Structure formats: C-alpha cells, structure tokens
Amino acid sequence: MTEPLLQVKGLQAWYGESHVLHGVDLQVHRGETVTLLGRNGAGKTTTLKSIMGVLRKRQGEIRLNGKDLMGLPLHQIAYAGLGFVPEERGIFSGLSVHENLMLPPKVADGGFTLDEIYHLFPNLAERRNSQGTKLSGGEQQMLAIARILRTGANILLLDEPTEGLAPVIVQRIGDVIRALKAKGMTILLVEQNFRFARKVADRFYVMEDGHMIDTFTADELEGRMDSLNETLGL
Amino acid sequence: MVTVFGISLPALMGQLLIGLINGSFYAMLSLGLAVIFGMLRVINFAHGAQYMLGAFFAWFLLRYAGIGFWPALVLAPLGVALVGVVIEKVLLSRIYNLDHLYGLLLTFGLALVIEGLFRHWYGTSGQPYSIPSTFQGAFNLGFMILPKYRAFVIVASVIVCLTTWLLIEKTKFGAYLRAATENPTLVQAFGVNVPRLLTLTYAIGAGLAGLAGVLAAPVYQVSPLMGQNIVIIVFAVVVIGGMGSIMGAVVTGYVLGLVEGLTKVFYPEASSTVIFVIMVLVLLVRPAGLFGKE
C-alpha cells in the first residue's frame, strides 16, 4: 500500500487538565473518505481539532504527506494542506456570503474556482451578497464546505456536517461529498449520523473513550453491524 | 446683524467650527480606539499618549532635522506605529488571555510612564508648532472667517476616517480583521497569521492616534498633557458610539464635537460636561452604545 496522505500515531490530547485522547492512531490515503464513528464524548471532534492544531495541548505524531505538523503554528498547518470545517460551521456574521467564501487564503494550486463552487452550490451564488449568518443551517454548511474547497487544501476535515439538518439537506450534503470524492478529494469525516456515513465512507474508525477500538472498510461493514450496534447504540 | 436665537451668526458659526475641529480629532482618535478594541479587545488607555507622541515626533523632526509638516505627516505616524508594534509585541501579546481589565491597566500605566517622561523632559508649558505655509491665512465665507488650516484638518480627518472605513469594509485585510474579531482561532486555522494581524492592527490604531497628533500640533500646542486632556472625552465618544463600532466612533466623534460647540454658545457652563451627560443617558437607555451590537 502507498504511503498514507495523513498519518496519525499515538495522538494524545488534553482539555486543560482533562486527558481526552489516549494514543489515537489513524491513516487516511489519498482519495479516500474515512469516517470517525463513536458516541458523544468518544473523542472524535477532539481528534479532528488536534490534527488541525486548533487544540494545542497534544502529543504524538501527525504527518501530512510525510511532513510533521506537530511543531507548526496553527496558521502554517493550513498551508501544509489541511482544510478544516468545524462542527459549529464558523460562518462570520460580519461578512457576506461572498466574503466568507473568499476569506481563507489559497494554500496550494488546484482548488475549486469560484465558478465551480457556485455550480456545485447554486444557492450560494443566489445569496452571495447576503450576510453569512442569514443563511439557513443547510446553506451555512454548504458555505463552510465551499469556503475550504477554494483553498486547494488536499484533505478536508469535516466535523459533523449533517448535525441539526433536515433529511433533504443531509441528502444534498451527501451528494456534495460524493461529487468531491469523484473529483479525487480526500476527506476525513466525523459523523454521528451512521446512516449518512455508511453511504459516503470508504473506511471507518470507531472511537470510544479517547481510544480507537476498531477500523474496517465499507466492504467489511455488514460483518461489523452487531458490534457497531453495541458500541454506537444504533 | 443676523442672529440665531439671539446669538450672532458669526459667533454661532465660529463655535460650530471649533466644535467640528474638536469633533474631527474625536473621530480620528475614537476610530483608532475602536479598531484596537474591536480586534484586540484591549481598551487602549495609551491612545492619548500616542496622540501626544505623534505631535512630539513632528516637533522633533522640525526642530532637530529641519523636516517640516508634510513629511512629518507621514513620518511621525509611522514612528508612533513602530512604537505600537513594540508595545504590542513586548507587552500586550502577553495578556490577551486575561480579563480586559488587565489591558486597560497596562495601557493606563504605559500612558502615565510616557506622559511622565515627556513632562520631565519638556515641562507642561507646551512647544509651538507653526501652521504650514500653504495653509496660512483664512477664507472669508461672508458669514464667518474660516482659517485655512482648520478647514484642512476637517477635510483631512474625513479622508482619514473614510480611508480607514474602506480598508476595513472593502479589502481582504479588512475581511480578515472583521472575521478575526469574531473567531480568531478559525481564521488562523484557515492559514491567516493572526498574531501578526493583531500587531498590525495595534500599529494602525496607534498610527491613527499619531496622525491626529501631527494634525493637532499647529492647532493646539505640542504638550505632554495634550493626550491626557482629550483621551477621557474620546473614551466617552467610544462608549456612546458603541465599543468597537467603527461607524459609531466616527459619527459620534463629529456629532459630539458639534454638540459641545453648540453648548458653548447656548449654555457655556455645561460645555465641559455635556458629553459625559450624554454618555450617562446613552448607557442608561442603550448600554451597548448607539451603534453597538446588543
């Protein structure tokens, strides 16, 4: 197998004095969509934030394309090629849709053009001059994803993109992720909505209490359903 | 002679002009304070000292290097901005995670030190700085005499405020500032060097104070106390406008300058307190300020 695009080894993280990740290992290969599953509080979002460097109190090894990210200041991690879409979406109320979209600097060549983005998200084109936070929850999620696509990041970290959204919007987000996969985008997804995750992911990791307890491919999913039922309470 | 409410028109217009001049300085200074507070969440009590530094730097340039008003209009604010960079890097950057009160206390202490040093070196009597030759004399508007330099100050302050507004509202740099005001961690996660943005913002705010100081030098005297005298009023302006609101700072600055001028005509006894009375009323009715977000 080729060298993984993202390699995490022995990742530990803390919120203040509270030790929340206990040696997490994971790999994401180029073009893969990998999903972190787990109950609330299992450490999925913390894993994503630690990889991105938003959570600074962390130890272990994080490599992107072989480059060590641990010692880098936060603003340089984006330039290594990580694109972050936070759980709370992070749409800026003081900026229009267009300004939100144009805010993240381009970190590499090859990002989506504005035309491609507006083609993929026609709602955003219609509302480009609206205030970012005046959009619906689904549109805000689209904007949060679209904003990162422009930057040329080579791996997307998506934190609970379907949280709190209506089923029809969840389906639309699924279509978008499949379109990104078809374009060869690499995605690391944190998701509680198992029914959504199983439709888009190539591989899964299961987390519990800050540990990785299982990993399997989409083809192996059926054989894992009993243990998943138990772990995730499906 | 034409009179308005029993006051002669030239006297009324004269006071309105003084009000507008003062308002121009209030607007420029509160603009810098609003920019700094909006981004750094620091209540920059050293703003008056930075305004005074601008005037003194212009005076130093003239006295020790023979450099006149126009080059000083660029060089002195740059010098103050540089002082701002040092203050932000060495002091303020260490207290961002603490309560706002620490920023206020630190900059207040800094103002006392800077103003104390200048008082020690130059006394309190003030140094003269002459009006540039281009703006000697006055325009006779018929109903009033308008000194050319004062007209220039008003126009210059409008240009400064408009340019700063355009910088913040219409440029990529401004978008970074506005976004980082809401969520600096996320902006940094996008690849923007937020620590550098903070330094630059403080330098711009300090530079604006320095620019106001240079413009003030020919109007008032260059004195170590000039910042102390104005900074309290400017803080009242910022509170009335709404902490961190650019538009609020500018509009309130001009309007309160005019209100102060009118009060001098109709009820001079209240002219030094009218702004603070308005501040109290605004705080009672709308604590976030006239343009602030509730």
What order do the helices and strands come in, and which of them pair?
The complex is a heterodimer of chains A (234) and B (294).
Chain A lengths: L5 E10 L2 E11 L4 E5 L6 H9 L5 E7 L2 E2 L5 H7 L1 E4 L11 H6 L11 H7 L1 H5 L10 H13 L5 E5 L7 H16 L3 E5 L3 H7 L2 E6 L2 E7 L3 H12 L2
Parallel strand pairs in A: 3-8, 3-9, 6-7, 7-8
Antiparallel strand pairs in A: 1-2, 1-4, 4-5, 9-10
Chain B lengths: L2 E2 L2 E2 H32 L6 H19 L3 H22 L9 H23 L15 E3 L4 E3 H23 L1 H11 L1 H6 L4 H23 L9 H16 L4 H21 L7 H12 L9
Antiparallel strand pairs in B: 1-2, 3-4
Sum up the structure in keywords.
heterodimer, A: about 230 residues, alpha/beta, Rossmann fold, six-stranded mixed sheet, four-stranded antiparallel sheet, about 35% helix, B: about 290 residues, mainly alpha, ABC transporter involved in vitamin B12 uptake, BtuC, two-stranded antiparallel ribbon, 11 helices, about 70% helix
